[in-house]
Amino acid sequence: xxxxxxxxxxxxxxxxxxxxxxxxxxxxxxxxxxxxxxxxxxxxxxxxxxxxxxxxxxxxxxxxxxxxxxxxxxxxxxxxxxxxxxxxxxxxxxxxxxxxxxxxxxxxxxxxxxxxxxxxxxxxxxxxxxxxxxxxxxxxxxxxxxxxxxxxxxxxxxxxxxxxxxxxxxxxxxxxxxxxxxxxxxxxxxxxxxxxxxxxxxxxxxxxxxxxxxxxxxxxxxxxxxxxxxxxxxxxxxxxxx
Length: 242
Ligand code: SF4
Ligand code: FES
Description:
The protein contains 7 helices and 11 strands.
């Protein structure tokens, strides 16, 4: 265990835990957009920046990435941090002015409007969908490509990737709902925020008992291959299995 100070409060932490994890464990609020506890942190949104003093030096670090250490002093809400978050929120508000998640977070951080030119993007380029697809699902169907203003979530040649199994992890994890997932009848449709990418349709499996369509056939085939289960193991939906 190590002892550190966050906003004047002395707290104990497991060695190696990040500042963000320790702050959350102690009910200290740090805003985040690209962090998810199930995925390795990446440091994309920079909203979680905090001020630290270590070995007499003061600097800003991403709390989702920075590991705690003995004697560390952390400030999560100094004027410098507030100004930094304000500019970041103004940029995010300009990028996605119609996003309720961004509007709510901006309000919480005291930002009502943006001086920057308005765009109409739903994706904030946090990279969570890409990391979930790679780390959790293990298929890496999408990636963040290009640099600067051309940065976008995409698949090779803007085509539907063969590797995509239609699981929808990307849509579930997206913090701003930029990826749309719709199940209608026997079809799941996934729409990425990148307008150059086509909508992708997946056939859903019908439960042999209740007749409900419950999961993409491609996803079930993938799980069967990964787990060595026979395809018949997925003939019945979870509700009818109990
Ligand atoms: S689509 Fe959503 S999860 Fe993916 S990078 Fe954009 S905002 Fe993040
Ligand atoms: S939550 Fe740390 S950089 Fe986004």
